[in-house]
Amino acid sequence: MTNALPPERILILDFGAQYTQLIARRIRESRVYCEIWPYSRSIEAVRAFDPRGIVLYGGPASLAGREPPICDRRILDLPVPILGICYGQQLLAHQLGGEVLPAERREFGSAEIQVDAGCDLFHGLGGPDGRLKVWMSHGDRVERMPPGFRSAAHSSNSPFAAMASTSGPVRVGVQFHPEVVHTPHGREILDNFVFRICGLSPTWTMGSFTERAIQAVRDQVGDGKIVLALSGGVDSSVVALLLHRAVGDQLTCIFVDNGVLRHGEAQRVRDVFETHFHVPLKFVDATDRFLRALDGVTDPETKRKRIGYEFIAVFEEEAARIGDVGFLAQGTLYPDVIESVSDRGPSATIKSHHNVGGLPERMKLTLVEPLRELFKDEVREVGRELGLPEEIVRRQPFPGPGLAVRIVGPVTREKLDVLRAADLIVQDEIRAAGLEDHLWQSFAVLLPVRSVGVMGDERTYEEVIAVRCVESQDGMTADWARLPGEVLARISNRIINEVRGVNRVVYDISSKPPSTIEWE
Ligand code: XMP
Predict the structure, then answer these.
(1) 101 CA distance to ligand 1 centroid (A)?
(2) Looking at the annotation, which residues are catalytic?
(3) Per-residue pLDDT tens digits for 29-79
(4) Which protein residue has the closest C-alpha to ligand 1 atom 20?
(5) What's the pLDDT band for 350 if we cut at 50, 70, 90?
(6) Considering the entire predicted model, what is its pTM?
(7) Is domain 206-393 in CATH 3.40.350.10, yes or no?
(8) pLDDT, tens digit, for every residue of 1-27?
(9) What residue's CA is closest to ligand 1, atom 11?
(10) Which CATH number fits domain 9-197: 3.40.50.720, 2.40.50.1020, 1.10.3470.10, 3.40.50.880?
(11) Quick check: do 9-197 and 206-393 share a fold?
(12) Residue from 235, 260, 353, 403 whose mutation best tests the ligand 1 pocket (most atoms within 8 A of CB)
């Protein structure tokens, strides 16, 4: 799908930094397209990508360590500007003939650097006294610059907090991390690199992406038929509209009601896609089948596997009924495909996330993944471009195995009814308090515990609902939300008064890690 991409691109070579996605997002926010590749990619691949600038991005690795990550030396000779960050700067120095040594002490945290005049990277920054606050995190440091370089900034601990080449294609290195919020002018520094030094313009807009992506889908699919599993979440909804715009009724969406959806979800999807957008939609109520598959299952991973398996079976049957399908569309996003050295979220390994993996091979279909290059916030923007209602665009994530992993223990219809009613109250109250957009996720969980209560003169012995509300950037780490006491009180009162069978509500005050967002 590279023909959906703009010609002005930055390549980020990842040498094992901790938050590689962060720098890519910063550059994209400045409306410049960039990709993250592992440092070991071949010079031919790099040439073919034809970047207009390269960022060598590294973190804790040490050139003095065993087998330090080192890229093909010829990459450093390409006639495009190169910015080395942290380990990237050390690598530049090392490979180009300078010297890097372990610093006497590790430098970690906020530091002040003195910017030397005349380096485009710091254009407009540093104030009259040339001082700039930055975030450092490194062990080694550049002791001697390579020939043809000059210092661009220094600090008390780093004689070459930044360095720049004096002739030829620009090579600049910084010891600090411009991509983190603790470097207050980090964004301007990165902007100086992409705009002033690489000479790019801010052309990566979701309007232009959408037009190119629509054309790319038409080119790929021709007059073939596409199927898409529509879940009602942001990603598959955006794919549905984009494909429908591209190839109209050659697209059929399949919506599977797996019986573990939130209250009103199935109807909402029909209203938006069938009634409003006239997208061809096959609606399958497979509740009985899924609940049979879940009968008596308590192990969370078994729940996930059974739901995944059943989903694939239902989807295959429905797609076969359409006949002659050549393509399978998926809402794969960029974070799912980045081949980075270390950016693997813990959730990827802790829980086997339910997806339709394996489907294309089984069904012998060609994949259509129009969002493969996008970060989540970019997908939301594309959704807006396509007129997707704001309530879907801003939707919180919802796990594929749905309420099955929010009922701790066996899943039954009765428990699902209880959880749905309680969850609806949580959603209502969070929305009414205007908190939905601040929260990554907010939901109810039904615990396998009964507790004693009193109602009137009667002793009760009923179920417990846990309320989980978290703040997060990407779901990999999360903090429990400090909800106002009144909101918690309303949620609790309403659940206990309105949901039959529940006499106690607790609030989950655990962060991730060490807890996870979901309870199962
Ligand atoms: P955890 O619970 O691992 O969740 O902290 C991180 C994010 O992933 C979602 N999640 C899932 N999504 N299938 C999904 O599609 C799953 O099996 C699954 N398990 C967790 C969770 O809702 C949160 O956003």
Answers:
(1) 42
(2) 86, 177, 179
(3) 999 999 999 999 999 999 999 999 999 998 888 898 888 999 999 999 999
(4) 399
(5) very low
(6) 0.90
(7) no
(8) 446 678 899 999 999 887 788 899 999
(9) 399
(10) 3.40.50.880
(11) yes
(12) 353
